């Protein structure tokens, strides 16, 4: 899991870019990088280490630019090295790309691009993207066309943000099965892995869905389907959270913050609208068989829920790990699958829900991020 963000505005965006990627550091913190536009040239800076250390060592805040993208990495393809750190650029340095996800056909694409003379400098799957953009821009002489052509060649999961010297005032971004949101401010437009990328500056969010791409400029934005290129009309989601709830609150890392905030978290949970809980209780009562589903830490939440229901409700509800659900669960139209996910974007849990829905099962979820993929795909959410 990695974090990406981008900002475009009328004035210098170095500070909001820094604030955004620092807020996303919980998604990955082994390396960090930025790409900024200086008039018509790309400035790319990156290094291993955390966000604040990187911005300080590279003196990023002194760089003046009205558009930029950033990345904080948790390594998947390639070790933690400078060469494997995002952003990545094309051979002609006209495109810079940040990416969260896994491009499953990158070896095939890389071999073809190498055969055409493209030079690769990393071990990552991401690096095929800027080279594809360069290739198709040379063919079509249009950044949007090159972007869409590239998106439709990629297999796997991705949230991508791109800036280019060919369109120095625009950010191109897209998603497939990796989270991506837009932040719409009066003087600034944002893209990020979640609303933490822009919550300090605007609470107006647009959720980009699978198979969609967006083009942002300082005073406009458009969202399109990347199969048809038709415009998709999107509604604004108002973020109700205070920005302070998403930060470390003076603690050295998020784990300590979560430990010490447990009493407050319990009190907040007890203040939930009881009608939402009643509706979910009715779903459980009316279903012939129910599964509690999570993965990692939330799988232990699911297992504890099994214990609580057996102890207090005299009903056994099995708990399954999301990555085993498709193989083990027996679901039909009389089943309920209740999932737990902190981010609302957990890949294995989304896959389990898709399987359950394909069998006609009812679905519900408890998540911690409004507007997340899971919150929008289930029948009932808390």
From TrEMBL:
Reactions catalysed, as given in the entry: D-fructose 6-phosphate + L-glutamine = D-glucosamine 6-phosphate + L-glutamate
GO molecular function, one term: carbohydrate derivative binding
Keyword Repeat among record annotations: yes
Residue span, Glutamine amidotransferase type-2 domain: 2-219
Organism of provenance: marine metagenome
Protein name: Glutamine--fructose-6-phosphate aminotransferase [isomerizing]
Keyword Cytoplasm: no
Assigned EC number: 2.6.1.16
Gene Ontology biological process terms from the UniProt entry: fructose 6-phosphate metabolic process; protein N-linked glycosylation; UDP-N-acetylglucosamine metabolic process
Enzyme class, first EC level, given as a word: transferase
PANTHER family according to UniProt: GLUCOSAMINE--FRUCTOSE-6-PHOSPHATE AMINOTRANSFERASE, ISOMERIZING, GLUTAMINE--FRUCTOSE-6-PHOSPHATE TRANSAMINASE (ISOMERIZING)
Keywords for the protein's UniProt record, in alphabetical order: Aminotransferase, Glutamine amidotransferase, Repeat, Transferase
Pfam families on file: GATase_6 (PF13522), SIS (PF01380)
Domain SIS, chain residue ranges per copy: 280-382
């Amino acid at each position: 899991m990695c974090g990406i963000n981008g900002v475009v505005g009328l004035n210098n965006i170095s500070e909001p870019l820094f604030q955004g990627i620092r807020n996303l550091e919980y998604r990955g913190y082994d390396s960090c990088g930025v790409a900024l536009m200086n008039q018509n040239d790309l400035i790319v800076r990156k290094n291993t280490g955390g966000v604040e250390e990187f911005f300080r060592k590279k003196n990023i805040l002194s760089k003046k630019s009205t558009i930029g993208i950033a990345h904080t990495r948790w390594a998947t393809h390639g070790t933690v090295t400078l060469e494997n750190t995002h952003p990545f650029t094309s051979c002609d340095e006209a495109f810079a790309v940040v990416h969260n996800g896994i491009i499953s056909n990158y070896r095939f694409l890389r071999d073809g691009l190498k055969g055409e003379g493209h030079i690769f400098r990393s071990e990552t799957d991401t690096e095929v993207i800027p080279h594809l953009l360069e290739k198709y821009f040379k063919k079509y002489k249009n950044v949007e066309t090159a972007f869409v052509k590239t998106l439709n060649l990629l297999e796997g999961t991705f949230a991508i943000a791109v800036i280019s010297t060919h369109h120095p005032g625009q950010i191109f971004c897209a998603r497939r099965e990796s989270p991506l949101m837009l932040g719409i401010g009066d003087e600034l437009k944002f893209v990020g892995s979640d609303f933490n990328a822009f919550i300090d500056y605007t609470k107006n969010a647009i959720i980009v869905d699978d198979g969609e791409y967006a083009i942002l400029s300082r005073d406009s934005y458009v969202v399109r389907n990347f199969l048809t290129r038709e415009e998709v009309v999107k509604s604004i989601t108002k973020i109700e959270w205070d920005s302070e709830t998403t930060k470390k609150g003076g603690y050295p890392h998020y784990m300590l913050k979560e430990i010490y905030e447990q009493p407050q978290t319990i009190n907040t949970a007890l203040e939930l609208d009881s009608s939402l809980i009643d509706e979910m209780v009715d779903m459980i009562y009316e279903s012939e068989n129910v599964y509690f589903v999570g993965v990692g830490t939330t799988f232990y939440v699911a297992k504890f829920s099994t214990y609580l229901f057996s102890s207090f409700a005299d009903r056994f509800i099995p708990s399954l790990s999301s990555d085993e659900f498709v193989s083990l669960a027996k679901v039909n139209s009389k089943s309920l699958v209740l999932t737990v996910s902190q981010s609302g974007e957990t890949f294995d849990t989304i896959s389990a829900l898709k399987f359950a829905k394909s069998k006609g099962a009812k679905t519900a979820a408890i998540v911690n991020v409004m507007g997340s993929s899971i919150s929008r795909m289930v029948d009932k959410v808390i």
